Amino acid sequence: MDDRALGMQFSPQEMARLRAAASVAEPVVVHELTSPAARRRLAEAEVLITSWGCPRIEPEVLRTAPRLRAVLHAAGSVRSHITDAVFDRGILVTTAADANAEPVVHFTLAAILWAFKKAPFLANDARRFRDDWAYVDGRGELSGVGRTVVVVGFSRIGSRLVKLLRDLDLARVLVVDPVADPADILAAGGEPATLADALPQADVLSLHAPALPETRHMIGAAELAALPRDAVLVNTARGSLVDTAALEAACGAGLHAILDVTDPEPLPADSPLYTLPNVMLTPHIAGSLGSEARRMSALALTELERYAAGLPPLSPITRHSLAVQA
Description:
Blueprint (H helix, E strand, L loop, with lengths): L2 H7 L2 H10 L14 H9 L2 E4 L8 H5 L6 E4 L10 H5 L3 E3 L2 H21 L1 H10 L19 E5 L3 H13 L3 E5 L5 H7 L2 E2 L2 H4 L5 E4 L13 H5 L6 E4 L8 H9 L3 E4 L19 E3 L9 H18 L10 H6 L2
Parallel strand pairs: 1-2, 2-3, 4-5, 4-7, 5-6, 7-8, 8-9, 9-10
Helix pairs in contact: 2-13, 6-8, 6-13
């Protein structure tokens, strides 16, 4: 993992728990897997605990790690570093994505509630129009009651979000996910829908699909044009789900957007999304940061303890599951 991940996730408390569960030699942490020091450690390692910044575990890396039996990821997606070679070897892979889902769900719920009231955009208006509050009527209906939220992706995050919206009993929730079981969507409080049917009904469109080749730019010019005039797009998933050029044009024409992720990250300095009053940009902060990130390392350490005790993993990743999730 990189130094930032190490500093956030492994305090003396986590390191003590690690040493209690496993035999740990020096160096405890490496940033790459090809140096002589890293190769010496790989030659004897049975378990790798990984996080942000881990390089890809390619076949040549595995050849230097004959005893490796498990890769326990202390962050979310393993897509950037787990290769087919890892699964070919039968190595156990786990993820702490469930722990990472919680702050993203909370951030997204807050974004949707602000979106109902157009709060971020009216806050921008307040800086410009200081004489009176006439501008409050310029951004459509300011209510969450009886509105429609479209959730794209019944994922770890999407499914939790649907349940929270159900519990609030504010909005109707349409769920777009071609691989989810409709019965599960209904049980969570949502209604299964196609993207084409859902978009024209969306007061808020919230994206939670994984970044896959088939989901790249799934929200393009046609999809953005299908949204109602005063709709709000919320993206806390992956920037690549949205065609940035189409989004810039749509927001320039009046679409509201709350964007925690973009494509690329960060956006070019001359992107109009920086200056539009109907756009709120945050620097990819919805996921785990600070003390939130230590919940992920705690989950990885729990997986280590279970592995050492011969117990089944809590959150395994398989070749098949990786193909359809983040």
